[in-house]
Design a protein that fits this description.
The complex is a heterotrimer of chains A (300), B (289) and C (302).
Chain A lengths: L2 H32 L9 H7 L1 H6 L4 H18 L3 H14 L4 H20 L6 H25 L4 H11 L8 H14 L4 H16 L5 H14 L6 H11 L12 H4 L3 H13 L10 H13 L1
Helix pairs in contact in A: 4-5, 5-6, 6-7, 6-8, 7-8, 8-9, 9-10, 10-11, 10-12, 11-12, 14-15
Chain B lengths: L8 E11 L6 E12 L4 E5 L6 H8 L7 E6 L2 E2 L9 E4 L11 H11 L4 H14 L15 H12 L6 E5 L7 H16 L3 E5 L3 H7 L2 E6 L2 E7 H5 L14 H13 L14 H16 L1
Parallel strand pairs in B: 3-8, 3-9, 6-7, 7-8
Antiparallel strand pairs in B: 1-2, 1-4, 4-5, 9-10
Chain C lengths: L8 H16 L6 H12 L10 H40 L2 H6 L5 H48 L4 H12 L5 H27 L3 H16 L1 H13 L5 H12 L9 H5 L6 H26 L5
Chain lengths: 300, 289, 302
């Protein structure tokens, strides 16, 4: 048999073998991608964008390495306030290593915090432009968090960072959004008891700040109070005290002051701090009156 | 099968063709060569470079597939692996793995033939002594001379005590002393009943050791037969005498002429340069001791 | 004359052992020094921009990425170059004649050579893995201690500290990490078997290396070709491009399937079932290429 004929036979055998293994490989590949053991394939556009990097990136753990190097380049862009280059580098990074939560976190942090603040302080822009860019970058950061959560649904940190963004006083406060994020986290993620307790506490503080949901905040607060004495931080107790006096909150068995605070002076101190807090979203209905009454009794 | 009546080597109408560079026509390297070697014979295949000797050997060893014809070793088709159980081969200009010592090389080939343990160790010791490589047995082959490599080659060819030894230019690159040793070894093997099939350009050596000779030219076997049949000059008679004076020689000449013959030549015979070399080498060896 | 078996484990092991020794004496293991330098150097990479636990884990990911990259690079280069060199060298030096003139079937010779190279790569990988795990573990424990100290000073509870420690150790030496190393070995085995096949008909070492590299590179995008082909086929489409992707997906191996170490670097767990199936894929590839090598080589004129 000539060499040419032998090679034809080889190709024919490989083709048959290929045909037989295709369904098995397809299923296995799918399973591996779903388990995040394989990164998703690049689509044509992405591969074109990555050019040669994309071609060899699939081999030999090069993708995570390339992603790490591209992520490092964001430091330089950050230093130069070159947000466009930074965004491009971030897109390349998350394309190469989409299952690494760190890069989504890093990217969102750069855009939502650094880029937005830089835009707001950019004297070269008109005030309206600055505000528009400021908000634009915050939304871009939020989009990165959302994409990261879609890629890593079990990652709790990304969700909490996203919630933190929308609860930041220096950004755009959106407590209903924060509440939705935290509730989804509690429903969808596997959490340790400490994590669950902490997130429920965060949810309480968030619901506290949403006028339409103060009743939900009280119900949750009481659950936290009843669950364990370790949950009874001053902020929880202050919140419960304020909510008990709120007209929208239905209270069956309100907690007595002695159950909330160990002494009158402690109550005065904590409630005083609560009133002096600059956060205007916290409900204050009845709290000022209560503090005045307590002080007048003491004054006498 | 190595029973009576089965030839050690049987090649019948062997043809081997190779495609030429431009694939227009085939080049015939071996053209209907036939030969038969009985067990215990020493057969020499001689011919100029490119005459088809190596190709014939390769076909016998299964390294190339015949285009047509058949090759058998002790009755077994040469293309089958079984045929090589009792065959040892020394290629022309043998090259072994440089990273191994002589001992490791022999052990490797011995194990490939299924030998192991004490049997293999003893065989290695015996062969190393036979080819006079005791001093260099633990040295890597990368540091060996051509002659030493040839001796290692011979040793590996004999590792499994083959019944057929195929030697391609066994004395190439070997000094006259070594060459004589190889020749003596072939005689020894012949006495042990081992069949030897060799190719050589050194016709004098072929003449000394071989029982049968085949002459191959341009891929064709032009003549073959026993050495005595091929080399005797029927019309001439040779007589070698000692201590004959001129008067007696003259009388011998007269007797020859009376019988109708002719004295063609007389004089002191020459010893071969090889014999002289060996004599001197032995002398020097003794003086050194 | 007794019959020689079609395949003999003894003969194969003799040739494999010989090949292993040959390659070791070529001082190929010196690359391990370079590997050690890479792994040691990677521990000094600090990506703690955010200064949180996730940044600590990222440093470990970078370290693992560097380690796996080096393991992949060295094992594949070793497998490719060693295999591409062996057969042409044996033919050129005519050492192949002396081997095949013994009762050694050509299949035994090929399998022995391949197993010799695989043994070499396996030993190299074991050493690299051992070194890598040792350095990674030292780094992990140092980080755990650092974080524990930091969190204690911040007044965090023992449970919180232990949770953080567990998160860090999850990025350290785990059984899934070893699954990643197995994936690296499988890749090297497949590359070696492809190189073996090419060398049976190739005329030179360079040609063998080039063709094998091309096959591997195409194999990296084979999965995309396959996905595209199956998707378009289900839509009832047809085009020359589609035909090309069909042939790519049929003829070339899916190297991406063997790349599970990317997920391992991110701390993902590898189940035994998945590892088993990935290993089966790798072994099947190697087997088919070896059989085809024998098919081409069995009547090769020497």
């Amino acid at each position: 048999m000539s060499l040419a004929l032998k090679l034809l036979v080889v190709l024919a055998v490989l083709a048959c073998f290929g045909w037989l293994r295709m369904p098995f490989e397809q299923r296995l590949s799918q399973e591996l991608t779903e388990s995040h053991l394989l990164s998703p394939s690049f689509d044509r556009e992405s591969r074109a964008g990555l050019s040669q990097k994309g071609f060899v990136a699939s081999f030999g753990s090069l993708r995570p390495m390339l992603a790490a190097f591209t992520a490092l380049s964001t430091t330089k862009s950050h230093g130069n306030s070159d947000w466009e280059s930074l965004e491009q580098a971030l897109e390349t990074t998350v394309l190469l290593d989409p299952y690494n939560a760190y890069y989504w976190d890093l990217g969102a942090w750069h855009l939502a915090y650094n880029a937005s603040t830089s835009s707001l302080e950019n004297d070269a822009l008109a005030p309206l432009q600055r505000k528009a860019l400021f908000e634009q970058y915050i939304h871009k950061g939020d989009t990165l968090y959302a994409r990261g959560i879609a890629a890593r649904p079990r990652d709790v940190h990304l969700r909490l960072e996203r919630a933190r963004l929308w609860s930041s006083r220096h950004k755009i406060e959106d407590y209903p959004k924060v509440a939705q994020i935290l509730q989804t986290t509690l429903a969808e993620c596997e959490l340790s008891s400490i994590q669950r307790s902490r997130i429920r506490g965060d949810l309480f503080y968030t619901l506290l700040r949403i006028p339409e949901r103060v009743n939900d905040a009280y119900v949750l607060g009481r659950e936290l109070y009843d669950a364990s004495p370790t949950n009874r931080f001053p902020s929880l107790l202050n919140g419960l005290c304020a909510l008990q006096m709120h007209p929208r909150v239905t209270v069956d068995k309100p907690l007595a002051m002695s159950q909330l605070y160990s002494s009158r002076s402690e109550a005065l101190k904590n409630l005083g701090n609560y009133l002096n807090d600059s956060d205007t979203h916290k409900p204050r209905y009845g709290v000022e009156g209560l503090v005045k009454r307590m002080r007048s009794v003491d004054g006498n | 099968m190595t029973g009576k009546g089965v030839a050690a080597v049987e090649i019948v109408d062997l043809v081997k063709e190779y495609p030429s560079s431009f694939r227009r026509k085939m080049f015939r390297a071996v053209d209907e060569v036939s030969l038969r070697i009985e067990p215990g014979e020493v057969y020499g295949l001689i011919g100029p470079n490119g005459s088809g000797k190596s190709t014939t050997m390769k076909a016998l060893l299964g390294l190339v597939a015949p285009t047509s014809g058949l090759c058998k070793v002790f009755g077994c088709d040469s293309m089958k692996v079984d045929a090589r159980q009792h065959v040892g081969f020394l290629p022309e200009n043998p090259y072994f793995y440089k990273h191994q010592t002589a001992e490791e090389t022999l052990k490797f080939y011995g194990r490939l033939c299924g030998m192991r343990g004490k049997q293999l160790a003893m065989r290695i010791d015996a062969l190393i002594e036979l080819v006079s490589l005791q001093d260099a047995r633990k040295r890597r082959l990368g540091g060996y001379s051509k002659g030493m490599l040839q001796r290692v080659g011979l040793a590996q060819a004999m590792i499994q005590e083959p019944q057929l030894l195929v030697l391609d230019e066994p004395t190439a690159g070997v000094d006259p002393v070594g060459s004589r040793q190889i020749r003596d070894l072939i005689f020894q093997l012949k006495e042990q009943g081992v069949t030897v099939f060799l190719c050589s350009h050194l016709l004098e050596q072929v003449q000394e050791v071989c029982d049968k000779v085949g002459i191959i030219f341009n891929g064709k076997m032009v003549q073959q037969g026993s050495l005595s049949e091929l080399t005797s000059v029927d019309s001439h008679t040779e007589i070698l005498v000692e201590d004959m004076d001129e008067v007696t020689l003259e009388k011998v000449r007269e007797v020859i002429e009376q019988g109708g013959g002719e004295l063609l030549a007389s004089g002191a015979p020459r010893r071969s340069l090889e014999n002289l070399f060996i004599e001197i080498a032995n002398q020097c060896g003794e003086e050194a001791r | 004359m007794s019959k020689i078996g079609f395949i003999s484990a003894t003969r194969i092991s003799v040739i494999a052992g010989h090949t292993f020794t040959q390659l070791v004496r070529m001082k190929v293991f010196y690359f391990l020094v370079v590997f050690a330098v890479i792994v040691l150097g990677s521990q000094f990479v600090d990506m703690s921009t955010l200064g949180a636990v996730t940044a600590v884990e990222q440093n470990l990911r970078v370290m693992k990425g560097a380690g796996f990259f080096a393991m992949n690079m060295f094992s594949v280069i070793l497998a490719l170059s060693a295999t591409a060199l062996l057969l042409p060298k044996d033919i050129e030096d005519r050492t192949l004649y002396t081997i095949l003139c013994k009762p050694v079937p050509r299949l035994d010779y090929l399998i022995g050579k391949l197993l010799g190279v695989i043994s070499l790569v396996t030993v190299g990988l074991l050493v690299m893995d051992g070194l890598f795990c040792l350095i990674l573990n030292i780094r992990v424990e140092a980080m755990v201690a650092e974080q524990a100290d930091l969190l204690t000073r911040m007044g965090r509870s023992v449970e919180v500290i232990e949770t953080h420690a567990a998160a860090i150790r999850d990025q350290g030496v785990t059984w899934s990490l070893q699954a990643g190393v197995i994936a690296v070995l499988l890749k090297a085995i497949v590359v070696a078997s492809i190189a073996l096949l090419v060398s049976t008909f190739s005329t030179s070492t360079i040609f063998t290396i080039i063709i094998t590299v091309v096959v591997v590179l195409i194999g990296l995008i084979q999965a995309e070709a396959r996905d595209y082909f199956l998707q378009q086929q289900s839509l009832g489409m047809s085009s020359p491009m589609l035909e090309m992707t069909r042939w790519v997906s049929l003829l070339f191996p899916d190297f991406k399937l063997l790349g599970i170490e990317d997920g391992v670097i991110n701390g993902e767990r590898v189940s035994l079932s998945l590892l088993g199936r990935v290993s089966l894929a790798g072994v099947l590839y190697a087997a088919i290429y070896t059989v085809l090598s024998w098919f081409v080589f069995r009547r090769k004129e020497l």
